[in-house]
Amino acid sequence: MKTIPTAAFCGLIASAVAFDSFSTPTDAQVDIQMPTDHHTIQAEYFKFMARYGKSLASKDQMDRRFGIFKSNYIRIKDHNESIDGSGNPPPFVMAVNEFADQTDEELLSTYSGGAKPKRSAKKLEAYKPPYNPFAQIDKDASDSYHQPLIPFDHLPSYKNWYEENMVTKPYAQGSCGACWAFAATSTLESLAMISGTEPSGKLQQYSV
What local confidence, expressed as pLDDT, does residue 45 receive? Predict the structure, then answer.
């Protein structure tokens, strides 16, 4: 099971759901057995403040942040202990990280910025993806544009490049709005390793 730091999905508390970039698996503190009594959570909150250098100006702010932390903490616990209909645990483990005292709205407003071009619905509907040289061009098939030339029946049912050390850890980009640059760089890092063209033979972190 892979540990992924969570975020926006649950008040952005910790490890990996809809926001997934607040901290890395090695940065997050993972504890599947998480007591939920008030005093234990309060003690965990003080540890959290010390770990991430949090400071608050008033008791009101302290109480509000602790309330958010407590809600996120319990949500993490509930997720980690959940079992699906087939008796399987969740595919990832959530954990407390530096965003655990923030709400979904706060995290989204701070970390999901960047340019958002306004496109009309008609333009989006009319959009056609760039030419794909790997697509089978068959004039007689209505969906020929999306038919692959390469057969996929030989592919494994499961493949995780992260487990094979072909993918770098998640980056915390802050609020700069350059997610596209981080995504492009990470793709090149992985491509160099998977294709065998990385001179060092080791996974590298390129500059953004």
Answer: 95
